[in-house]
Amino acid sequence: MSRRTRRNFPEPPHDDREPILARVRRRARRKALRGFDQAINRLYSAISWLDARAPIEKRYFRVAIFGSSRILPEDENYRRVVELARQLSYMGCDIVTGGGPGLMMAANEGARSGAYRHRTRSFGLTILLPIEEQPNPFLDEVAHHKTFFSRLHQFIRLSHAYLVVDGGIGTTLEAMMVWQLLQVRVIAGRPVILACRVWRWLRDFIEGEVIAKGMASPPDLDLVHWVDDVAEATEIVRQARDRFVQHHDVRLAPPVEREEGGKDEGGATPAGARP
Question: In the chain, what are the domain boundaries?
Fold first, then answer.
């Protein structure tokens, strides 16, 4: 078996005009930075090793909702996401968001309004940035992250379905990350749902510029679901939840109805009901 060797790049050309002290400092700085890089690589290797051996969560079905932080509560899209998350929570799905304002807050608000039936929970994975606001008030659990890498990693690990609503660059990044993991078969059986018309441009671009030029395969376009309304999105999640329950043999607790105001509509069987 061949032994892997480390490739050493040649030293930069020596400058006779460089003072000896400056040369010593430069080499020490380069050595320290190389040590930091090696330590980070070892840390990522350890994380990958642990992640490959971590048990899959089989008790609760969780849906990540990616969306813009800039949409205000009076916007129609905000109310639409509140209703979408309420239906998913009523169905028995935990909701996972970035924990911030805008459509993230709308998703967590809807999750709380529908949580009475199966006692589902609302998660926020926040990012520590100079421009990021405080976590929204509708969260049951908060995980603070300092990097986008760790945050995206937890989104992937924690969720069993991914809903993409209206958003900008950050939302696009999250959607494309999960899409690529499906494409290369790192994850499977977890639907990605682009649940609004604003993402039609992305489909047209992938189909007309990427697939047409051979940089992706036609089946890659069908790895995600393109829908326009709440009913279509909830139905796709319902089917994924039912498969999850069947595959993992989840033991479900009976639903809890409101004592005041009568029973809510719908009789979906929950995945992730709390005892």
Answer: 18-54, 62-248
